[in-house]
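Field reference: sequence -> structure
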Amino acid sequence: MRVLVVEDEPKLAEFVKKGLEENACNVDIAYDGQIGKNMALSNPYDVLVLDVNLPKINGFDLAQQLRQEQLGTPILMLTAMGSINDKLVGFGAGADDYLVKPFEFRELLVRLRALQRRSNDMLPQQNILKVADLELDLNEKVARRGQHTIDLTAREFALLEYLMRNRGRVVSRVDIAEKVWDIHFDTGTNTIDVYINFLRKKIDKDFTTKLIHTVVGMGYILKED
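Structure field:
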């Protein structure tokens, strides 16, 4: 489960992040509503956790703006504002669940997992991944950068999808081998490096901004320079 936590209290944000990561979640943190909005719209999260009293854009307004952008990602409001009126405002803004601080971490985890299951059953999956001007259409199986359509083989498409789903994160050759090739890594092969080079030629070569980067000794990362 990939979770975005939008919370301006660093200690609480880190507490939630640590607890979720100990339960096999990938967690990003945004410390104000504007950054949270940008991250929510540009990354494929499974669940969003929003505080209400946030700098720049409060949690209620943020939920409403995300819904206006047609974002279907489940939203859990996590706030000290626990009156019935507050909850009605939150649900009216587009929240799917509401948990009042202080809270038991176990309850937060159970609620997030329930939202993820419900989302998988009821909401359409995100069909387009975006990084900078690069788009990957998961329905049409087409990649586009700017005004250009990029022809990819099935393996190149799967590799690019994995990199885009992990944008901003270093992924090792072992990760790629297991997740894209579904094999145990063979240190005697350079297949992954070959396919990375194939992708670079197709999505980076003719563009000023390079997106695929090598982290020496660790692997690869897809990010905007």
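Note: The chain has a mean pLDDT of 89.
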